[in-house]
Specification:
The protein has 529 residues and is mainly β. It has one helix and 45 strands. Strands 20, 21, 22, 23 and 24 form a five-stranded antiparallel β-sheet that branches. Strand 12 and strand 13 form a beta hairpin. The chain is globular, with a radius of gyration of 26 Å.
């Protein structure tokens, strides 16, 4: 019987951890960084099958890491960006430092694009790339200039310094790059204004200073921006206001403070942005309420706290908001200091606990909205951290599979959606932290929007599904599927025989009923224990 989730490949064979991360898709292939225990962290590619999951190239020969930087204060894998039919990333082959590389998914087609800083010294240790229009943007130094903004079209000659923002060997040090169509926004220091907001269209003349307010990440966000109603909203630091909510339309005059959430110089520190129902949703801090859930329609008057979830100055610390259907979900701790899954329509009364942490020991992490469902990780008390899914109803909230049985927990994370597959990393006692997926028919689960066949259950004595009672309905036959959408069984309603569940392994199944036109008219989920 198929499961909703399965391991793609044990990349680091045995209990070693391959730690797959930083996914990007090019065509029907998905690239990522992983460690097979023999070659260090290198570029890998998968088509979703075990045989089609392979290391692309051993860039740093042997056990050395080709795509992973070990620094004094930071350890990180290179981000990956797609441009055309290739993927671009930073890598070091040990003869050169970290430089820009490109790959078409083959060993021969994986080459260094340009040795920006000649020799064994790295041109960049930030290892962050973003794509805007037809270019990849990143921060790098060639030794003659400091760390400045560069762009690449994927060729040696097309990999060039955009602008020497801080002239000479001093660093402009662009950080927090954010792409909007063909423009990239970032924070940089020209040694005149200090760190401030800049934008670039990829040309020297088109790389301009906007305002002396610097985008600043907080609360775990790596990129403190969100696009909303044609403008870019960001957490920006200024001397007068601290870190607060700003917006820009790409002009100096249009770069303005939305609201001084925590008045004066103390930081409001907005973070964890998402867009929902004509509003930006985020968390922010005030002296009176601590860190709580906030909303903004883009105006000062329309920027307000949604609810004082945890009364007093300590705050509920809302995290990782995600939108499902007509609600926003997030993780927060109320007055009893238990992290719980919350739901909100951005009204006080419409903001309440969705899943109650009854034991006080539950943890919630990694909210990820996808195809009509919300995935998240939690421990139920009897299990460790495992992958759950909800359709927004209590009855439609369930654990997909206990990947690591018992209290060990599989710790699913690093979710990445392609057109057909949801990839993620997870741990079990047999394989370590490896690449997993939810199959190509995950959209099948999203179709389950009602439960009209409420009489369907498994008779524990006879191990059979009970009779379908559909008086007055037009149902002609039913089908049973697993959570991958694989059809397992068909039966006409007039058939007097009950459906045996003896051949079903323990798990969750979907029963769909069809009318005479072969249209699905109702759905129900049932469990074989």
């Amino acid at each position: 019987m198929g499961s909703a989730q399965s391991i793609v490949k044990d990349i680091c064979i045995g209990l070693g951890n391959s730690n797959p991360s930083n996914f990007v898709s090019v065509g029907n292939l998905t690239y990522f960084i992983a460690n097979d225990g023999l070659h260090g962290y290198e570029l890998w590619v998968t088509d979703g099958t075990e045989a089609g999951t392979t290391m692309v190239k051993d860039i740093a020969p042997g056990a050395a890491d080709g795509c992973y930087y070990h620094g004094h204060l930071s350890f990180k894998a290179s981000t990956l960006q797609a441009l055309g039919r290739k993927v671009y990333f930073f890598a070091s082959d040990q003869n050169h430092g970290f430089e820009l590389w490109g790959s078409d998914g083959t060993d021969l087609g994986t080459q260094m694009v340009k040795d920006i800083m000649p020799g064994p010294v790295s041109s960049s240790v930030d290892l962050y790339l973003t794509r805007a229009g037809s270019y990849i943007y990143f921060a790098a130094t060639d030794g003659r200039h400091g760390t400045e903004l560069w762009r690449s079209d994927g060729t040696d000659t097309g990999t060039v310094l955009v602008k020497d923002i801080n002239p000479g060997t001093q660093n402009g040090n662009p950080v927090y790059l954010f792409a909007d169509s063909e423009v990239v926004y970032f924070a940089a220091n020209d040694n005149i204004h200090g760190y401030g907001l800049w934008k670039s269209n990829g040309t020297e003349d088109g790389t301009v200073f906007l305002k002396n307010v610097a985008p600043t990440a907080d609360g775990g966000d790596s990129i403190p921006y969100v696009k909303f109603k044609g403008e870019i909203y960001f957490a920006g630091y200024s001397l007068d206001n601290g870190t607060e909510l700003w917006k820009t339309n790409g002009t100096t005059a249009g770069t303005v403070l939305v609201k001084d959430i925590n008045p004066g110089k103390p930081d409001g520190s907005p973070s964890h942005f998402c867009v929902y129902n004509e509003h930006i949703v985020f968390s922010a801090n005030t002296r009176a309420f601590g860190r709580e859930l906030w909303q903004s329609d883009g105006s000062e008057a329309g920027t307000m706290m949604v609810k004082d979830i945890r009364p007093g100055k300590e705050g509920s610390d809302p995290e990782t908001p995600a939108v499902l259907k007509d609600k926003v979900y997030f993780i927060a701790s109320d007055s009893v200091k238990r992290p719980e899954l919350w739901i909100s329509d951005l009204t006080d009364t419409g903001t309440h606990i969705f899943i109650n942490n009854a034991t006080g020991n539950q943890h919630f992490k990694n909210l990820f909205a996808d195809n009509g469902g919300l995935y998240f990780t939690t421990d139920s008390g009897d299990t460790g951290m495992e992958l759950w899914r909800t359709d927004g109803t209590k009855s439609g909230t369930f654990m997909l599979k206990e990947i690591c049985p018992g209290i060990c927990g599989s710790e699913p994370g690093n979710f990445f959606r392609t057109d057909t597959t949801l990839f993620f990393s997870a741990y079990d006692d047999a394989h370590g932290q490896e690449l997993w997926s939810i199959g190509s028919n995950v959209t099948f689960i999203a179709e389950i929007t009602s439960e009209k066949l409420r009489d369907v259950y498994i008779d524990p004595l006879k191990n059979k599904l009970n009779q379908l009672r559909q008086t007055g309905s037009d149902i002609v036959y039913i089908k049973i599927f697993d959570l991958n959408g694989v059809e397992l069984y068909t039966q006409f309603v007039k058939d007097p025989n009950q459906i045996s569940s003896e051949s079903f392994k323990p798990g969750i199944y979907i029963l769909r009923s069809y009318d005479k036109n072969d249209d699905a008219v109702s759905f129900v989920r049932f469990v074989k224990e």
